[in-house]
Amino acid sequence: MAKILRSETSLLKRQLAIGRELSRGTPMRLAVWGGALAVAALLGAHSVRTHTFHGAIFAALALVFAVGYEVHLREIAVENRNLEGGRRGERKMAERLAEQLADDHVILNDLELRVAHERAQIDHLVLAPSGIYVIESKFWAGTLAGDVRDAQWTQTKAGGTVRRVKSPVEQCERQRRMFITLLAAKVPEDRIHALAVFTHPAVKLQIANAKDRAFLVRDAIRFINDRCFEPPVLTPAEVLELAERINRGQA
Asked: Which of 58, 101, 162, 173 is in Cβ range 3.0-4.6 Å of 2 for a Cys bridge?
């Protein structure tokens, strides 16, 4: 069983912040709508009495503000559901990695990487004697179609909804290049791998040229385990030292 040195925190923090805002949503909604309607009524009456449009304009703005707040609440409720799905997918991936990789592998979840002016967030980083595996996990359902070289793919959900999504392969490859720069050739480039992994149980991949680039969970784990038969580039002690150094850099 692999060692988990760092767990996911950033999605949890955002979800907790949204939860606090949503918990205040009902009383705030009543206050916002009550205030907006009161202002609209007063200013509307003023416009009628004075036969001017200024009061009506400000009354309309008060109602627009209330509608905007309502839209905001709905948007963060949707974001909260998406965050929960993302956290569920990342937990699943982290658990499967820990359970099915050897004990000389170390897992760091939810890393923030900075190289010069570039920043990236890495969902999972696996360090092993066989190399380093940069993993971007997506909890996307439906059928994903496109080419691994495309910047965008098509996602078709079970109900028939179609939307364009940004390719996580490109995102993961960018993280890999940043990590190569960070390590400064301590590990050969061909031993630093970028894996875009799709964790939803109802996902289907129709991605051309996706070999060794886009994976289901079981295939990603098989890919990492298959590399164990290659000559090692790090000792178990070096793996642990590097993982601890990276983890300390997150503080």
From this structure: 101
